[in-house]
Amino acid sequence: MMESIRTGVQKPWIKFLLAIVVISFVFAGYFTSSGLGSDPNAVATVNDDDITANDLNAAVQAEAARYGEQFNAMFPTDERRREFRLSVLDKLINSELVAQEVKELGLRASDSQVVSQVQDIPAFQVDGKFSTAMLDQLLVRRGWSREEFRQMVGDDIAQSQFIQIFSDTELAMPYEVEQRIALQQQERTVKAFTIKSEQFLDTVSISDEEIEQYYQSNLDSYKVAETLTVDYIELTMDDLAADIDVSEDEIKQFYDSNQDLYRAEEERRVAHILVNTEDKSEDEAKAKIDAIAARIASGEDFAEVAKAESEDFSAEQGGDLGFAGRGVMDAEFEKAMFELESVGDVSDVVESEFGFHVIKLLDIKDGDVRPLAEVKSEIETRLKNDKAEETFYIKKDKMAQLAFDRYDSLTAAAAETELEIKTSEPFSPQGGQGIFANAELIKEAYSQDVLVDGKNSSAIEVSEDHAVVLRANQHIPARTKSLEEVKSQVTTALKRKKAREAAAEIGQSLVAKLNDGEPVDAKLADMGIEWKEASNIRRNSSELGFDITRIAFKAPKPTNGVAKAMGSELMSGDFAVVQVTKVNTPDISKLSDAEQKQAVSRIQRSMGDSGYSALVKATRKDADVVKFEERVQ
Amino acid sequence: MEVYSTEEEQIKALKDWWSENGTSIIVGVVIGVGGFFGYNWWKSENIAKQQQGSNEYQTFTQIDAANEQESFISAANQIKADYADSGYAILAALHLAKKQVDNNDYAAAEKELNWVVTQTEGHDLQPLMKIRLARVLNAQQKYQQAETLLTSITAESYAGLKQQVLGDTYLLMGDKVKARSAYATAKESTESYIAKNELEMLVNDLASYESEAVKADDAAAPTEESTTQQSTDKQES
Question: Quick one: which H or E segment has residue A192?
């Protein structure tokens, strides 16, 4: 082995190869920092790009927020919630694939496009003008750097360009428009009758074997989930607050000693010039800002200098950041802007995390103290809540301690905390109403300690101002109802089924007769059934009812003037027989412009929609996608 | 390996080794370092070019195509020439094709889309571009060409869309049996809700043109439950 390498070294191409290897070591640090190898926090990799657990969490939160309060009801178990997370992961993978596609096509937003896009976002505007303060607020809240945000906006713009392949440039060919309109607005003349299944309910015969068989093959419908009834005591801050009295004196005293709380916040409007330290050294930046400060000091117009020199989004507005109170800006920046004495003053050079600034004070909005009468109820609630909060934590600790010490009963805990023992409705492991839908509570209720050992639960925090201790009262295990219990239910279901079949059988035989040209009117008269007719109905017509109309538009058209009958069961269980006697195709040229336009955009949407999902599917098929499902909780 | 007993021998060995291999190492280092910086330079040039393309494309899309047709067309062609290998050229060509369809100039649209099909060779977008081209061929009654083009698409992901347009082609040719079966396949393959609805309408409208083969299949299918779909089939067979 060694020998072969040593002889190998003699050959020039091996030497060259070795040199390349050496170089690759030299730059190894550079390449690994740019992201070779997968992150242990990645929940998936898409062609070597990671989707991290953080990305997934953010997306799951955003998606869950769309369901709002229904989320818990729709995804009640850990299992279902995991499925939900995995489905969100799939969406993330698809959008990563699209992002890569955008890159591959070389679509990339320019800096000026990013800037103008950001300035147009309504959330960043105050009185219709862009405000950097609003942007900074968002960045701080989300923990994004400016560069990251730029990147995101840029990706967004490039992606919307990409989407134009499927939207703005999508075609609607005239022949397609014509065909779709002709279909959409087609009119049919229809004859139909309905055989009610109800009339057979009493005449169908059912044997015990059939009942048994039906029961056995539908066992799932007769399953009952396990349920648990619990005794519980609950402590809420609201209940406590309701019992607390606050005197006028206390209110007045609080008001007097906390004037600051009732002062409308002072706001200042400032303009600034930024020299950032992202793309240059500290010394260069400092030199540049000093020069700028000198120009301002010598009397140059602040706004003009800002426009020309500032490296911030606000440059275009002469550095104007709009009004801002405390707690919005970078700490050093804020200190400087509130130290300026009068309108028109310009600060010395200030250093913040973004770089160096000079700041000019443009305007001040003073804060006034609101009168006692106006804030009285606010103070009362506050004082009540403060007192209630204190009591809440004392009582909660007591409740938890006693529930633990005297684990075989709630009586002691209830007496000591002056709470009433209540009994719940039965609830399943999927949860019940109100606090019994709380996942933490359900988990405790169905735990070994509570369910099996019969102990009190711990003090469960249903929310931060609501605590519950519970113990099992009655547990009913899951079971399947016996045939005896559900016999009448089974019999009814079976009768309905047979009645439907009876109606269908007669209906089908009538269809066959009609299509063979035999008369059926006598038979219909016997059964007391009448034909219903409607001329020139459209797809959305209600004349014959929704489901018969639907069948009428599925039925074959007449051939050589002969109508063909078609039978179909309705949702109600009745059986309908339908004949189409005439089909009218509307005159396209008589359509209004609006109708034409609607058809065109419908086709564009349909084709674009199909095209986009086909492309995503195609890229996914060609991509190297690895999912680490075990890392998704 | 040889064992070098004295320091001198070791130094000599190193010197020999260097005189033998020094040149190739230096050449290797130069190529490596040069390549590294060259790549970085090329990358930033590339980014700048893409961003420039983006700006020009934006300016182009803001042109009022209806009233300033000439500048619209010349701007599109400029982008196609300047950024031939980028997505902006493809986008510009697609805008042009749409404009030409709006003007009923199908021959020109065909030419434009042919260019895009060539340009997207090997890319996942190509089948979509072929499908778009086939629709323009349909509009010119070039049904055979459209059929050949569509059947050349093998990408499974595009099966739904392909069969839908193929259905249109057959219907325009007057072959309702083939059209119905293509629409039915399309309906099964598509994931788009809007498209599914539309295809259902198309399939139902051709209810009398179910092919013999399909009928035979349905007749063999079990029909113990009289659901709507099955009773329909039962009747038609």
Answer: strand A187-195
